[in-house]
TrEMBL record, chains A, B:
Membership in a protein family: Belongs to the Nudix hydrolase family.
Highest classification ranks of the organism: Bacteria, Pseudomonadati, Planctomycetota, Planctomycetia, Pirellulales
Membrane-spanning intervals of the chain: none
Name recorded for this polypeptide: Bifunctional NMN adenylyltransferase/Nudix hydrolase
Residue stretches making up the Nudix hydrolase domain: 9-147
A Pfam family reported for this protein in Swiss-Prot or TrEMBL: NUDIX
UniProt keyword terms in alphabetical order: Hydrolase, Nucleotidyltransferase, Transferase
Length: 234, 234
DNA sequence: CCAAAAGTGTTCAAGATACACCCATGT
DNA sequence: ACATGGGTGTATCTTGAACACTTTTGG
């Protein structure tokens, strides 16, 4: 067999850290992660990141999207490669290298339970996680850090919001991710000055107080700004 | 064979983009990359990034350091994982996924030619590269972008300088990486205000003009600043 | 004494921060 | 009428940008 690799090969997997923002408890907005309860050894019954083996005829991105769809029912979501983990003992069975991804979802509009195979999938707050299988705690932590730093110079936070959102929701999202309070007036001033959100003319419904205006992310404008060497900073 | 992966596996390699700064031509400071001339098919005789297959009993970082040492003689240098490339046709022989790294070296103090196996290694200016094997042009470009953005918020640039350097060298380094001119007075003011470089008391030797003061990077101070949530920005 | 690069301050504009009250709506 | 969160402006401080001349050294 000419031109082929003669050594034993590590196995190759992908794992995905799926983040979502929970706005349910009005004031207790928090960041959530999707986990899968394993039904096979090792770590049977334990919680792990969605993921699985990479096939020889699919790209890494394709593998990540396929596993995500198969295990959680989520599709067409923001997905980005995070880091590749290759420590020796990370899988007790054999040598497995994993290419980790992270994904951002807005919960409204994606039905996780619609999946065929999602019976074991569940959301957890990042601040209250169960013990995780393999080195997944480390993977998750790396993803969390990445999200925190990336959100400061790219508007990926919008991926976590519904299409129409209030400025207050946007602010809470940044507060949760950056883990500090932001001044309401300064925050609104800055976001509006950037002109990357657009008023829809609509307002919130069914709230027991003055209804907030709904905005949406103006990607066209953002892309134009980015090309001119623009820096998104909150 | 219980607990083992039943599908065919992609092969796994590491490739390393080694950057160095060339201060030789006084005014024509430029960024260089190390390439290896291949002596096996495919792309025999072509230029490629140093790299090779990952063994089952070494971590990815270890594989990168081993290949670097074997192919270029470089060791104990700054090395960081970049991105994992897994496009389907990237290696004409078979499916190969590569974990790319980038490395930073200061040329004084590392003798590339000392290596046993470095007869085919050479430095190229990033602005004047030969055609590259596989998808290495893309890998190199990704590394270059990463260097440009990372240098803005972490002082990794110092890895490209000799232990003692002049502020002018530091400025030229940033100018080359960021690809724009910086104001001398403002640059010095900012760098000195950060207090992350320390005067050594020594000065340049053998220059045909006023000799510049030599500084060194103060890592202790930098680490302390980082812990307090400090942001390095040029 | 000339060429070459080192070294040094001030002014101005823009952006960041701090801060408190009135408004609209549902119950 | 009250409770709840929405919405708004100003003053001050900090930071970044622009800018030109004198000093030192070797040849």
């Amino acid at each position: 067999m000419p031109h082929t690799y003669q050594f034993a090969r590590p196995a190759l997997t992908v794992d995905i850290v799926v983040f979502a923002m929970d706005f349910a408890g009005r004031d207790e907005t928090d960041l959530q992660v999707m986990l899968i309860q394993r039904d096979l050894a090792p770590y049977r019954g334990g919680w792990a990141l969605p993921g699985g083996f990479v096939r020889t005829q699919e790209t890494l991105d394709d593998a990540a999207r396929r596993e995500l769809q198969e295990e959680t029912g989520l599709r067409d979501i923001y997905l980005e490669q995070l880091y590749t983990f290759g420590a020796l003992g990370r899988d007790p069975r054999e040598r497995v290298v994993t290419v980790a991804y992270y994904a951002l979802v807005n919960l409204t509009g994606h039905d996780v339970r619609a999946s065929t195979d999602a019976r074991n999938a569940a959301w957890f707050s990042v601040s209250d996680l169960p013990p995780l299988a393999f080195d997944h705690a480390q993977v998750l932590d790396t993803a969390h850090q990445r999200l925190r730093s990336k959100v400061r110079y790219q508007p990926i936070g919008f991926e976590l919001l519904p299409e129409r959102f209030t400025l207050r929701q946007l602010q809470r999202l940044y507060e949760v991710i950056l883990d500090r309070e932001l001044d309401k007036r300064n925050f609104r001033k800055k976001v509006l000055a950037m002109e990357i959100v657009k008023e829809t003319g609509e307002i919130e419904k069914d709230v027991a107080h003055r209804a907030a205006r709904l905005y949406r992310f103006d990607k066209r404008r953002y892309d134009r700004l980015m090309k001119k060497g623009f820096n998104f900073e909150i």
